[in-house]
Amino acid sequence: MDVSAERKASDGSATMGKARQAFTERMSCSGTGAGGMAGCTPHAVSADLTSEIWEKVKNHPCYSEEAHHHYARMHVAVAPVCNIQCNYCNRKYDCANESRPGVVSEKLSPEQAADKVLAVASTIPQLTVLGIAGPGDPLANPAKTFKTFELVNKVAPDIKLCLSTNGLALLDHVDAIAKCNVNHVTITINAIDPHVGARIYPWIFYKHKRHVGIDAAKILIERQLQGLGVLAARDILCKINSVMIPGINDRHLVEVNKEVKARGAFLHNIMPLISSPEHGTVFGLNGQRGPTAWELKTLQDSCEGEMKMMRHCRQCRADAVGLLGDDRRAEFTTERIAALGHKYDVEARKAYQARVENVRHAKVAATRRQLAELADCADAVKVLVAVATKGSALINEHFGHAKEFQIYELSATGAKIVDHRPVQLYCGGGYAEEDRLPTIIRAINDCHAVFVARIGGCPKAELIKAGIEPVDEYAHAFIEKSAIAWFKRYLDRVKTGEIKHVERGEAATAHASIISAA
Amino acid sequence: MPFKIVASQCTGCSACEQECPNVAISEKGGIFVVDPKKCTECIGYFDEPQCVAVCPVDNTCVLDMARPRYAS
Ligand code: SF4
Ligand code: SF4
Ligand code: SF4
Question: How far is A152 from A121, CA to CA, in rounded Å?
Fold first, then answer.
């Protein structure tokens, strides 16, 4: 789909650095209500900008890993045109079972899109965010994109707007973006060195010309970084997406991370390349592999300095609907929307969201209490655990029904989400039941335990054999609190010699292994 | 020769329609077609035929050999 970036004038980077740091602190004590800072250390409140940023992101599932448990987003596919070509994208095929950027089943007009937003928001009160991400580049379709935002602003003014772009046309549309109140922009930046970029982008269409090779990459990168700078200077939040392509930009992404940090990006999201010959992409056809789960995590860890890294991204389709990881788009096709007949009740939505805020408070408080108990074990041990969840930050999914597992890293500092592993085929069928269990075990092989609401006896035994402890005693409890409680017991058992702490092996490439099994 | 679109390869993205300086391209029932009477091969506007330059699928916007070259 798209790839883009924007740039931040270096004179503003000092203040942005501070704001970002404050933001990070704020995120780590997220769950505070509107404007409230209950329980947070006072220094986090220092700058006004901080509260502003918190207001902007607290209900956004993509920007706050904590919010993504509770709030939903939707994408509308109003932007078919693209102005560059990426080697990981093929806009020719549309597979209804496929979940990756650039893929979409139904193209909508701005009017149809606004209707769809109304219908979804009336049905799913957690919906707080509307994004336009494709299937092409939103800013290569400026008329449709901004018309959609304008209509949605009118009919559902409480919904936040965001857009993802490759950044080539960003500088041309900064005013329109600000005018529509778009406060989140995602720019995909895969390289800042044109020699690296040329291996990812075969061409761009710019100023009525097709540019190829280094020349194309150079223009694109310059425009992306400039765009980032201008948006950041205008206080529009910018997240950077990068696709990790082993052997091409994997090591280079550390440089990209430094550069976008300096230019004012507030989040950096490194995603694995999804590549398989069936996709018909250049990378798929030439056998370019995606990163292993371990390679991805190592890179993300090495970039996680003062800047927030995003680990929960699901690389949603351009027409995704619902909570991250639970796509409900099939419920909202054009015909069904027409049949739905909807009324938009802002008050009901507010009441629902207030209840969600209460749950978030309770969760944060519970986690903090649990964490206090960990305080005395100054252990350096870190383990990964897998969690089956349907959302709301609860362990509430049956092992056998889980479409994906969220991966948390547990250490003396608490529980941190670091990955999610899909365990279902994108294109179902041909996947025998008896093959399912080994596939799941391979996908979470780096974990010490798996937390589930329920689990059958047979998979339980298989998991234990593989060295992964199945844990069902925290069914329907908060994930972080439970994980920390389990971790404390784990450390205690290690201390008393009841069990021995061993490092786990590597997991199979989560995304690629599943696709190639298709 | 005007350009034509190889329908079997077209993704229907509409990029060419948006770029054509002569409004020669339009969608008819989900299929994008060039009106040969309107296409000037972009002569008089741009150095490159815009539909060719922007199309994501190579060899999809091609010269229609069955017709004479455009003469201004
Ligand atoms: S692609 Fe990533 S950033 Fe976009 S909506 Fe999905 S999870 Fe959020
Ligand atoms: S060559 Fe130029 S004038 Fe002819 S159809 Fe393509 S864009 Fe239009
Ligand atoms: S640009 Fe190419 S793929 Fe897109 S509509 Fe035109 S001919 Fe079809």
Answer: 11
Q: Give the model confidence (pLDDT) of A394-440 as tens digits.
A: 888 888 888 888 889 888 878 888 887 877 533 333 344 556 788 88
Count up the domains in chain B and report the number. Answer: 1
Say if B70 falls within a structural domain: no
The DSSP code for A43 is: G
The string of pLDDT tens digits covering residues A55-105 is 665 666 555 555 556 677 788 888 888 999 999 887 665 433 344 444 455
Length of chain B in residues, anyone?
Answer: 72
Q: Whose CA is nearest to atom 3 of ligand 1?
A: A62
Angle ∠(A378,A383,A384) on CA atoms, nearest 5: 145
Range list of H helices, chain B: 15-19, 50-54
Strand order in the sheet with A84-85: A84-85, A203-206, A209-212
Put simply, whether B11 touches A (Cβ < 8 Å) is yes
User: Tokens for A212?
Assistant: 């190829």
- The domain A373-517 having CATH identifier 3.30.420.130: the answer here is yes
If phi > 0 it is left, if psi is from -120 to 50 it is alpha, else beta; for residue B59 that is left
Q: Is the ipTM of this complex over 0.90?
A: yes
Instruction: Find, among A269, A316, A311, A8, the residue nearest to A132 by Cα.
Output: A316
Domain A58-339 fold is: TIM Barrel (3.20.20)
The DSSP symbol for A417 reads: E
Task: Check which CATH number belongs to the domain holding B45 and give it.
Answer: 3.30.70.20
Q: CB–CB of A209 and B12 under 8 A?
A: no
In A279-333, alpha helices (H): 282-285, 293-303
What are the tens digits of pLDDT across the range A357-395?
776 677 777 777 777 766 666 567 888 999 998 877 788
Q: Where are the domains of chain A?
A: 58-339, 373-517
CA of A90 to the centre of ligand 3 (A): 13
Domain limits at B34? 3-63
Compute the nearest-CA separation of A181 from chain B (Å). Answer: 26
**Residue B9 is assigned to a structural domain of this protein:** yes
Residue A136: closest CA among chain B residues belongs to which residue? B13
> What number is the average pLDDT over the span A136-153?
93
Separation CA A249–CA A346 (nearest Å):
45
Whose tokens are 């362990």? That residue is A395
Residue B52 CB less than 6 A away from ligand 3: no
Cα A437 to Cα A148, A236, A400, A423: the distances in Å are 44, 45, 9, 10
Q: Note whether B12 contacts A: Cβ–Cβ < 8 A.
A: yes
The closest ligand to the CA of A68 turns out to be 1
